[in-house]
Amino acid sequence: MSDPRYPIGKFEWPKSPLTGDERASCLEHLAALPARVRAWVGAAPAGALDKPYREGGWTARQVIHHLADSHLNSYTRFRLALTEARPTIKPYDESAWAELPDAKAAPVELSTALLDGLHARLDLLLQGLTAEQWAQEFVHPEHGRALRLDATLALYAWHSRHHLAHLASIA
Asked: Fewest C-beta in 10 Å: which of 71, 80, 84, 148?
């Protein structure tokens, strides 16, 4: 791993709509995230939750809370795109969120429980989408363009694997 910030490489936006098989693979990664986080927490050595995955990086605790924060925002973005015409979403400062007292000190069980319920709902929502719904978009002001839901699915599947790799580097 040459850059510990990106242990699985940087995300690359899909150049074309995802195929059904690609969506299915992404959905599997998302559905598996809560159990994989719980497995890491259960096997983590003493003190691992408060160790950073790299010098100057977030601690495992912050990464786990970040996953809940980020995927909750993603869930909301999917729902907005499915119920509004090309909505503009509100970005948030994830680094600032990771420095809030709950992200730095709260028990990770709060976020693992949130991930369990959130991903169960997200999976139910996404498994039922039609091809037309996967093509729906939202506008992300920081990206300066509309993002398709299938590309967003690919992003969050990568995001899951990305942060699981961060956790694995701590153990």
From this structure: 84
Per DSSP, the three-state class of 70 is: helix
- Judge residue 43's burial from the number of C-beta atoms within 10 Å of its C-beta, 0-12 exposed, 13-18 middle, 19 or more buried: exposed
The token duo for 55 is: 């010098």
Q: Residue 1: is its pLDDT beyond 70?
A: no
Strand intervals (E) in 60-161: 137-140, 145-148
- Domain 20-170 CATH assignment equals 3.40.30.10: no
pLDDT given for residue 144 in this prediction: 86
Picking from 31, 149, 33, the residue whose alpha carbon sits closest to that of residue 87 is 149
| Residue 89 CB burial class (10 angstroms; 0-12, 13-18, ≥19) | middle
Q: Is the pLDDT of residue 171 over 90?
A: no
What is residue 48's DSSP assignment?
Answer: G
Mean pLDDT of 61-89: 98
Looking at residue 17, the DSSP 8-state letter turns out to be P
What are the domain boundaries of the chain? 20-170
